[in-house]
Amino acid sequence: MFQQPYYRIDQKILVLKDTYKLRGPNKVELGLIRRKVLRLFSTFDIEDTTGAQVARVQGELSLRPSFEVTDTSGQKVGSVHRRIVVLYGSKYWVEDGNGTTRYKARGGFWHHTYRVKEPGRGKVAKIHLKWLRIADHYDIEILQDCDRLLVLALSLVIDQLEHEGRRQHRVGPDLTGGN
C-alpha cells in the first residue's frame, strides 16, 4: 500500500460519514480513510481494501496544531505539526517516531499546492488539492524515496487544518455527517 509513486485521496460528499477513497496509479483503489470527529481534532483511520486498519492519524491537544501517526499496534511512527505564525502561506514539519524532523512542507491556501522537502535532499513530494469539482481530491506525487505514510498523513492534516472550513460553506445540504 505504501510503495506507490502516486496517491489520490477522493473525498465523497454525498455520504453519511466522512470516508475518503485512497487510490494509486490509474485510480486503482488501495483502501479507505475514515474520518472520526469525536474530539477537538479529527482522527483518520487508514484501512486497506480488506477493511483492516493499517495506520491512524490523530489530533493532539497542544499549543500548536499537532497530529500523531501510529501503526496498527499503536506504536508512534511520526507526527505532523503546523507553524502558528507565518507571514505568507502555511508551514508544516513532519517528525519520525524518534522526534527527528524528516520533512518540511510549505504551501498556501490560495495555490492549493504544498511542496514537501527533506532537509539535505530537496523536494520529495508534492501535494495538490483539486477543488473546483463536486467533490475535492488530493493528488500526492512522490518524487523521491520517502516515508509515504508520513507524507499521506501530512496531506490529511493539511486538509483538516487548511480546507475544512471551505467544505462547510458549500451550497446545498450537509450530507457528510460532519460539523
Nearest-integer average pLDDT: 82
CATH T-level fold name: Tubby Protein, Chain A
Q: How would you spell out the order of helices and strands?
A: EEEEEEEEEEEEH
Strand content: over 45%
| Strand line-up across the major sheet | 1-2-3-4-5-6-7-8-9-10-11-12
Number of helices: 1
Distance between the first and last residues' Cα:
30 Å
Please describe what this structure looks like.
This protein is mainly beta and 179 residues long. The protein has a single domain, classed as Alpha-Beta Barrel (Tubby Protein, Chain A), CATH 3.20.90. The longest helix is centred in the C-terminal third of the chain and has 21 residues.
Topology:
Layout: E1 6-11, E2 18-23, E3 29-36, E4 43-48, E5 53-60, E6 66-71, E7 76-82, E8 90-96, E9 101-107, E10 113-118, E11 122-130, E12 137-142, H1 148-168
Antiparallel strand pairs: 1-2, 1-12, 2-3, 3-4, 4-5, 5-6, 6-7, 7-8, 8-9, 9-10, 10-11, 11-12
Which characteristics define this entry?
mainly beta; about 180 residues; disordered C terminus; 12 strands; Tubby Protein, Chain A; 1 helix; 12-stranded antiparallel barrel
Task: Describe the structure concisely for a colleague.
12% of the residues lie in helices and 46% in strands. The protein is mainly β and 179 residues long. Strand 10 and strand 11 (122-130) form a beta hairpin.
